[in-house]
Design a protein that fits this description.
The chain has about 160 residues and is an alpha+beta fold. It is built from six helices and nine strands, in the order E-E-H-E-H-H-E-H-E-H-E-E-E-E-H. The chain is globular.
Length: about 160
């Protein structure tokens, strides 16, 4: 688990950029831009909650990017991300973590209940990393409705 004040674990993942071009993304590279980083971990492309969450980030993108870079992370493939991005008009990178290694590093992988049964899967989580690469805020078990407003409020602090 990560804690506020910890150095954010570095990682490199394949993903798609805002133009749906495939490339590798490394946290250390983005920290050089001296902006905060928003990593939101979500379970699956093109599912109702994940679509709503991603579209909320899309719709608030201009306000968010005044202070931070936004990245969505899931276990989905690059091909799935491309379809999701195109269908929803997403304007930020989506990263693919099929082996859930980064999900685990950031506490976004574990046991939860789905349809009354325990499963091990992605736990909807958002992490805010400050300009110095330290964990500033963690939202665990995110409820989609109103979440982006919480992130925006934290950026304003």
């Amino acid at each position: 688990m990560i804690n506020i004040g910890d150095k954010a674990p570095d990682f490199c993942l394949s993903g798609i950029d805002e133009t749906a071009g495939e490339r590798d993304f490394c946290l250390s590279e983005f920290l050089k831009q001296e902006k905060q980083i928003i990593l939101y971990f979500y379970p699956k492309d093109n599912t109702p909650g994940c679509t709503q969450q991603s579209c909320d980030f899309r719709d608030s993108y201009a306000r968010l990017t005044l202070k931070a870079l936004v990245f969505g992370v899931s276990r989905d493939s690059i091909a799935s991300h491309i379809k999701f991005k195109e269908k929803q008009g997403l304007n930020f990178p989506l990263l693919s973590d099929p082996d859930h290694k980064v999900l685990e590093l950031y506490g976004a992988w574990g046991e939860k209940t789905m349809y009354g049964k325990p499963v091990t899967s992605t736990i909807r989580t958002t992490v805010l990393i400050d300009k110095d690469g330290k964990i500033k805020k963690v939202w665990n078990n995110v409820k989609v409705k109103g979440h982006v407003d919480e992130v925006l409020a934290e950026l304003e602090r």
